[in-house]
Design brief:
Layout (H helix, E strand, L loop, with lengths): L2 H33 L1
């Protein structure tokens, strides 16, 4: 894999991790709102 592809690949992994964290945070926020 060349450097360019590697950068894109790393970026995609990074973005998907960020998305996952944001999804989990919003899920938790929704649940805590339901409790109150």
């Amino acid at each position: 894999m060349n450097e360019f592809m590697k950068k894109i690949f790393d970026r995609k992994i990074f973005d998907s991790k960020i998305n996952l964290v944001n999804t989990q945070k919003s899920e938790q926020a929704r649940k805590s709102r339901k409790k109150n």
